[in-house]
Design a protein that fits this description.
alpha+beta
């Protein structure tokens, strides 16, 4: 397994992976469709350069990814990361792909002096078992406010 950061050079492989993911588990995706041209534009858009994806490849094909962004708190200088998305194609699960993606992500965190990271985790039994196996992590139920801004 090799890891690459999503870029213009490997976006075609990423799009092929997304098509597979959408076809296999449409109910598990946060979108009902994906905009191929929009993704190609976002990979080059300066606004989205703050969002990174690490792709896991096997035999040249993307089989999983972790998407994240770094940010900091001005008041105390704490550097943090938020994991936006982790997904491994079903036929590649239980083979260490997600754990390897998190290890690669944690290396990136260390490179930037990130103090902590968090994510909104799935509570599906399979995902819950995965997250409960994290060493040195705590799981909690946090109140969450989410508001869609109508422009």
């Amino acid at each position: 397994m090799v890891f690459e950061k999503l870029s213009r050079e490997n976006v075609d492989g990423y799009l092929a992976y997304l098509k597979k993911a959408m076809a296999r588990e449409p109910e598990g995706m946060t979108a009902e469709f994906f905009d191929e041209e929009g993704i190609r534009q976002r990979v080059a858009d300066p606004f989205f350069q703050k969002t990174a994806s690490i792709l896991a490849l096997q035999d040249g094909e993307v089989i999983g990814r972790i998407e994240y962004h770094f940010y900091g708190c001005m008041q105390d200088g704490c550097k943090m990361a938020y994991v936006d998305w982790v997904y491994v194609l079903p036929e590649h699960r239980h083979q260490g792909v997600a754990q390897a993606l998190f290890r690669e992500f944690e290396k990136a965190c260390a490179d930037f002096g990130i103090h902590q990271y968090y994510l909104i985790r799935s509570e599906k039994p399979e995902a819950d078992r995965f997250y409960r196996a994290f060493a040195g992590a705590e799981l909690s139920t946090e109140p969450l406010l989410r508001k869609t801004i109508v422009l």
